[in-house]
């Protein structure tokens, strides 16, 4: 069985308070690179699969089933007004398939996500053909 490998990073963006962002991401494995003027760049857990989602558990409750946390969902409250952060992720499993997506988050919480697989319906629409006639770039 092949192992999934992935990486993730963001653009550089401005936050209200780097210390508060660091505290919010403390148990996520996300690395924060501080830039000048409160700018930061995030890197998905390099020991994980590079995805921006994690399961969070209460370590003091052995019956805790955990909760799903999507990092882009918690970032807006930390952004400077008018700021946009773009989360990117790419991954693969032995080149049997490639995945990739980008999620942009605006400071008011709105999000836009684009996936690599969005090209299939876009190509079908642009070329006037049925999307089912385009084979997937996977085995």
Main features:
3-stranded antiparallel sheet, alpha+beta, 139 residues, single chain, 4-stranded antiparallel sheet, 15% helix, globular
Give an overview of the whole structure.
This protein is α+β, with helices and mostly antiparallel strands and 139 residues long. It has one domain. It has helices spanning 18-24, 71-75, 119-127; strands at 4-10, 13-14, 31-34, 39-43, 53-56, 67-70, 84-93, 98-106, 111-115.
Give the arrangement of secondary structure elements:
Elements: E1 4-10, E2 13-14, H1 18-24, E3 31-34, E4 39-43, E5 53-56, E6 67-70, H2 71-75, E7 84-93, E8 98-106, E9 111-115, H3 119-127
Antiparallel strand pairs: 1-7, 2-4, 3-4, 5-6, 7-8, 8-9
String of helices and strands: EEHEEEEHEEEH
Terminal CA distance: 14 Å
**Shape category:** globular
List the uncertain runs. Answer: none
Instruction: Bin the helical content.
Output: 10-25%
- Neighbour order of strands in the largest sheet: 1-7-8-9
Q: Tally the helices.
A: 3
Mind describing the biggest β-sheet?
4 strands, antiparallel
**Helix vs. strand class:** alpha+beta
How large is the share of residues in beta strands?
35-45%
Our count of domains comes out at 1
């Amino acid at each position: 069985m092949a192992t999934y490998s992935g990486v993730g990073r963001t653009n550089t963006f401005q936050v209200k308070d780097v210390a508060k962002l660091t505290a919010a991401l403390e148990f996520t494995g996300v690395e924060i690179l501080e830039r000048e003027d409160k700018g930061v760049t995030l890197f998905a857990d390099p020991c994980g699969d590079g995805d921006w989602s994690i399961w969070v558990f209460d370590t003091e409750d052995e019956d805790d089933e955990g909760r799903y946390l999507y990092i882009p969902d918690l970032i807006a409250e930390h952004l400077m007004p008018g700021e946009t952060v773009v989360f990117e992720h790419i991954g693969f499993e032995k080149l049997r398939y490639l995945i990739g997506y980008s999620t942009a988050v605006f400071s008011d919480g709105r999000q836009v996500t684009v996936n690599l697989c969005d090209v299939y319906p876009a190509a079908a629409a642009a070329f006037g053909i049925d999307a089912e006639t385009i084979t997937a770039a996977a085995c």
